[in-house]
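Before relying on records like the one below, remember that each one covers exactly one chain. Contacts with other chains, cofactors or solvent are not represented anywhere in the record.
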Amino acid sequence: SYIQREKFDLAQELCKRCLDYNKACFRAWEMMGEIMEHDSMPKKAAECYKNAWELQKMTSPTVGSKLVLNYMKRQHHIEAIDVCATMFEQFPEYPEMKEELFKKC
């Protein structure tokens, strides 16, 4: 993918084009979050991950973790803790996630 090859401008353009046609494409939102993280834009990254998280009905531990970390970068601890709580309810089989993320919050 363009992201793996660090061609973020091309990846962003394709994601934007995808989202122009389908705002419910959670994978495009997730990839936009990765691009925004790379560009050191935690606010925009968090917005993208939040869209992906909500579109996936809060069922992706990967997206949830990325959302928590970007909330933490922005000092939005309450939102981060809310996402952590949702993740712990849905994914109790990931105790290492609980230790890593919740201690950071």
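The helical segments are 8-21, 26-38, 42-55, 61-73, 77-90, 95-104.
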